[in-house]
Amino acid sequence: MPKDAFVIEKNQFSSWLKKLQESFQLIGPVEKEGHFVFSLIEEVNDLVMDYDTTMLGPRKFIFLPEEKICTIYQKDQGFTIKKVQDVPGQLLIGVHSCDLHAILVLDKVFLLKSFQDHNYRLRRENTLIMALNCTKVCPTCFCSSMGTGPFVELDKGFDFLLTDCGESYLIESFSEKAKDLLLPLNLPQADDSLFKKKEQLFQELKGRFIKNLDTTNLVQTLLENQDHPVWQRTAEERCLGCTNCTMVCPTCFCFNVKDKISFDLKECDRVRYWDSCQELHFAEVHGANYRSSRKARLRQFVTHKLATWVEQFGCFGCIGCGRCMYWCPTHIDLTEMAKEVQKSNFKRMREDGYA
After folding, report:
1. Got the DSSP string for 169-194?
2. Is 195 domain-assigned?
3. For the packed helices 334-351 and 229-237, what is the interaxial angle rounded to 10 degrees?
4. Among 48, 75, 76, 90, whose Cα sits 20 to 30 Å from the Cα of 210?
């Protein structure tokens, strides 16, 4: 049983969050037009802690959909550059395990040892994360297959972990900041019974998954089947090139840059915004486009998430949240495409005497 594990009644939890609003922007899941979204919290009572999933993950509050990188000022002897320096402290509340993994994946992208993205680092350092173990399994979710859920099994990269125990939460702290914020509450220490209840819920949830994906040899299988007919067929029959899959994916990090220049040419805001590998313009270089076909762009999305990401960052780029298939207008399912490739690969190996 962890040392820093306590019990907090739900009424006390709400009161505590209201107190934290004096120091942090609170961001969490709320209901909007029949769906759940992460949003800035004005009223703590608006929080919906038993939500299933959200359209966009909480990444949009660390890696913003559009943000200023810097301002460039023209001077008599050249230019000066002013970077973004101040961002408000924020607390992300109710982050499910898959979305927590997604943020840790983005850390690998933006916080490299060789180079750290200034804006991302600034927001990440000023963000506390309150993770929340799931109580439901969505039909399109396959986080269990990807090792990213439904419960948080990490011990770093976040600050708090909540488990819903009915009238109260089991709350565990995983950072010094979290311990400092919990200390004034004088909460009772959690006992073994709560951890038994937590383990029971975990085992129950693991048995509810409808969707799954076998990741054994998946990387090699996809990379060896770049000409599989599933890419062409799905692209021609179903893919609209709408970019929904990449916009809702919590690990996509592609962006483009534009300059907003003042009329007197003395000042320029350099701004970045989310971009998508599913856009035709994305792969344009001087005189050519190296992904001009929808087939190539669709294949890029699936193989990057499930194969080449591993080579780049040592982990999958897919956290199994199922958002890409849920919000796809034609419900393209990347797990079904991967399974079709796996099935063909296994059949070929069997015919060759290797399986």
Report:
1. EEEEE-SHHHHHHHGGG-PPBP-HHH
2. yes
3. 150
4. 48
Domain match, 202 and 222 both:
no
CB 127 within 8 A of CB 99: no
Local confidence band at 353 (pLDDT 50, 70, 90 cut-offs) = low
d(CA 36, CA 50): 10
Q: Which two tokens stand for residue 299?
A: 């294949």
**Domain end residue (candidates: 206, 228, 250):** 206
| % the chain with pLDDT above 90 | 91
**Across residues 211-238, what is the average pLDDT?**
96
Domain match, 106 and 141 both: yes
- The β-bridge partners of 68 are 271
- Average pLDDT over every residue of 130-149: 96
Structure tokens given for 165 = 């125990």
Asked if 47 and 30 touch (Cβ cutoff 8 Å), the reply is yes
Enclosing domain of residue 280: 218-263+272-351
Per-residue confidence (pLDDT) for residue 77, from 0 to 100: 82
**Taking the model in full, what pTM does it have?**
0.94
Same domain, 255 and 289: yes
Tokens matching residue 316: 């999958």
Same domain (yes/no): 253, 163: no
